[in-house]
Design brief:
Elements: H1 5-17, E1 29-31, E2 34-38, E3 41-45, H2 58-71, H3 86-99, E4 103-107, H4 110-121, E5 127-131, H5 136-144, E6 148-152, H6 157-165, E7 173-178, H7 190-199, E8 203-207, H8 222-225, E9 233-238, E10 248-252, H9 254-263, H10 265-268, H11 275-290, H12 293-311, E11 315-316, E12 326-332, H13 334-345, E13 349-350, E14 353-354, E15 364-369, H14 376-393
Parallel strand pairs: 3-13, 5-6, 5-7, 7-8, 8-9
Antiparallel strand pairs: 1-2, 2-3, 4-10, 9-10, 11-12, 12-15, 14-15
Helix pairs in contact: 2-11, 3-11, 4-5, 12-14, 13-14
EC number: 2.3.1.47
Enzyme class: transferase
GO molecular function: 8-amino-7-oxononanoate synthase activity; pyridoxal phosphate binding
């Protein structure tokens, strides 16, 4: 046996014992609100981030094809060499106008943005204050930075204030939060958080990957939903969720964008975004602003599902201040979450179990994401499926490490 195979096998065994081994799902593609399991079988999907239902929109496909014909299949190099183009400049102007900022900068992915920005703006004397529920890319960005990182309890502003009060000797302070938290479906209390940031002279880095296109006036995001604007908020987002394209961006003051062009390593050393993704994203920004019905439809269907699951006795995490398209159903153990997900799959509904390390141990869940492509009968069918499997949850006594009880 090769020297490395033994320890790989041991790691796999440990993960399998905790029902935490992952494999790639098998499907032949997607359709609006569905995944295609085989040539004759579509499965209702709540796993997609295609919130506005744009992934198969004819206008987006047309614009992607036009960008391919005009600019080719790839950008051929980093943005500082051959990878810049007129379509990327146009996309950045559209993002800045949409987000209400002076400028924007496009990266190959949202992950690239989060691992770049914090590392680019911090020193060994800087302090980062990060919400405990932040995405893995933010956690990795904190680790790659030279700053000292403090984790505050999820949306706990009293705890954040305590940490800020104790922050001594920092040359720069950054509060990092998501706008819409992807696993809990709630939002950051931005008005109070911005007040704290001003009091302690901190910059807010707002990852609005799950808010962009969905929240606020014309889908401008969570900051807009609270009717807030501040140059001390740097907005991060993706083009791959509600905008159904690919790539990431940061929007903020021109001085910040010019600085990142010179200092953000994942921008400097990555090939520029491909033209087709840029063309599709440009069209998606237009649709997101013009078609308010998509957000209204999402809000109605999400509330219908949320209330229906509550009425059945399931533990649905509360969205908090603002309603979002994410409906998390807390189950508890990995084993039971997998059982529920499998029971739904057998009824042609795809809602995969979300397990550690994505969520804390003992809080495995099903995360149901509503799309504008979902219809009322899809929600009724899903509620009927949950009703049929509920008897399998009642009285379940989980045995996973860290799990003390199951949620209904």
């Amino acid at each position: 046996m090769s020297y490395w195979k033994e320890w790989v096998a041991k790691e796999e065994k440990l993960l399998r014992e905790k029902d935490n081994w992952r494999t790639l799902p098998s499907s032949q593609g997607t359709a609006p609100g569905h995944i295609i399991r085989d040539a004759h079988h579509a499965v209702l999907s709540f796993a997609s981030n295609d919130y506005l239902g744009l992934a198969h929109h004819p206008a987006m496909i047309e614009q992607a094809e036009e960008a391919l014909r005009t600019h080719g299949t790839g950008s051929t190099g980093s943005r500082l060499l051959t990878g810049n183009s007129t379509i990327l400049a146009e996309l950045e102007r559209a993002l800045a106008a949409w987000k209400g900022t002076e400028a924007a900068l496009v990266f190959p992915s949202g992950y690239h943005v989060n691992i770049s920005v914090l590392a680019a703006v911090t020193t060994e004397s800087s302090h980062i204050f990060s919400d405990a529920a932040n995405h893995a890319s933010i956690i990795d960005g904190c680790r790659l930075s030279r700053a000292k990182t403090f984790i505050y309890r999820h949306n706990d502003l009293d705890h954040l204030r305590q940490l800020l009060d104790a922050s001594v000797g920092a040359d720069r302070r950054f509060i990092v939060t998501e706008g819409v938290f992807s696993m809990d479906g709630d939002v950051s209390p931005l008005p109070e958080l911005l007040h704290l940031a001003e009091e302690f002279e901190a910059v807010v880095v707002l990852d609005d990957a799950h808010g962009t296109g969905v929240m606020g006036d014309k889908g401008r995001g969570t900051l807009s939903a609270f009717q807030l604007h501040s140059d001390n908020v740097w907005q991060i987002g993706t083009l791959s969720k509600a905008l159904a394209a690919q790539g990431g961006f940061v929007a903020g003051p021109r001085a910040l964008i010019d600085y990142l062009i010179n200092k953000a390593r994942a921008f400097i050393f990555s090939t520029g975004l491909n033209p087709a993704a840029a063309g599709a994203a440009l069209e998606a920004i237009k649709i997101a602003q013009d078609e308010e019905w998509r957000r209204e439809h999402i809000a109605r269907q999400a509330e219908f599902l949320r209330q229906g699951l509550k009425d059945l006795g399931y533990h649905v995490l509360a969205p908090g201040i603002l309603r979002t398209p994410i409906v998390p159903v807390l189950i508890g153990s990995n084993t039971q979450a997998l059982k529920v997900a499998q029971a739904l799959w057998h009824q042609d509904i795809y809602a995969p179990a979300i397990k550690p390390p994505t969520v804390p141990p003992g809080t495995s869940r099903l995360r149901l994401a509503i799309s504008a492509a979902h219809h009322e009968d899809d929600i009724e069918r899903t509620l009927a499926a949950f009703r049929r499997i509920k008897s399998d949850l009642v009285g379940f006594d989980g045995t996973d490490e860290g799990t003390q009880h199951e949620y209904l």
